[in-house]
Amino acid sequence: MTRDMVFSRFERFWHWSQAALIIHLIMTGFEVNGAYEFYGYERAAELHRFNAWLLLGLSVFAIFWHFISGEWKQYIPTTDKMRAVLRYYTLDIFKKDSVHPFKMTPLVKHNPLQRIAYSAFNLMILPIIWVSGLLYMYYNDWPDIGMENVPLALVAGIHTAAGFAMLVFLIVHVYMIFTGKPLMRYLKAMITGYEDSHD
């Protein structure tokens, strides 16, 4: 067995802080849309806006860190081992003795499917959430930017759709955490920073 430090303290802080903020944003988003009542509408909306600003600030800081550290390269899509990874997740994962074809290292942290998923999350879902959320927050200022003829329902619908896309991403992400062998392998790596290779 080998042990490599794969995720730095900052990466783990960013990951878990982002996860907590996103989960709370999803919860308050559902409440603001009337799915249930826990905080009450006004408090839920206030918390939703507050956590949105925290997530935006964290994201700006993370983008800066990724560019300064060079870690942005981890998200460049690749087809290297794509077929093997697809085969693993569709067929081989159900075989007792199957081995994941991708080995996580400090220099290459994400398999080809992860790179595509994380790129879509960071380059599509998050920006749509930010832009639509900021427009939603500053609805009263729309005439100042020439948007007085844009229906609020359109922006609200886009924001809600992006919120559901984020929820789907979160569900799949949590599911994929538990596809490691042994079961807690990936979760342990994101908690401790170390990847234990059992292959």
Quick synopsis:
This protein has helices spanning 9-32, 41-69, 82-90, 112-137, 152-177, 185-192, and strands at residues 2-5, 194-197. The chain is mainly alpha-helical.
Strand order of the largest sheet: 1-2
Poorly predicted spans? none
Mean pLDDT: 94
Number of helices: 6
CATH homologous superfamily assignment:
Transmembrane di-heme cytochromes, Chain C
Outline the biggest β-sheet.
2 strands, antiparallel
CATH class: Mainly Alpha
Q: CATH fold name, please? A: Fumarate Reductase Cytochrome B subunit
Top keywords for this entry?
Thiosulfate reductase cytochrome b subunit, 2 strands, mainly alpha, 199 residues, single chain, Fumarate Reductase Cytochrome B subunit, 6 helices
How do the strands and helices of this protein lay out in sequence?
Layout lengths: L1 E4 L3 H24 L8 H29 L12 H9 L21 H26 L14 H26 L7 H8 L1 E4 L2
Antiparallel strand pairs: 1-2
Helix pairs in contact: 1-2, 1-5, 4-5
Main location: membrane
Membrane topology: Multi-pass membrane protein
Organism: Roseospirillum parvum
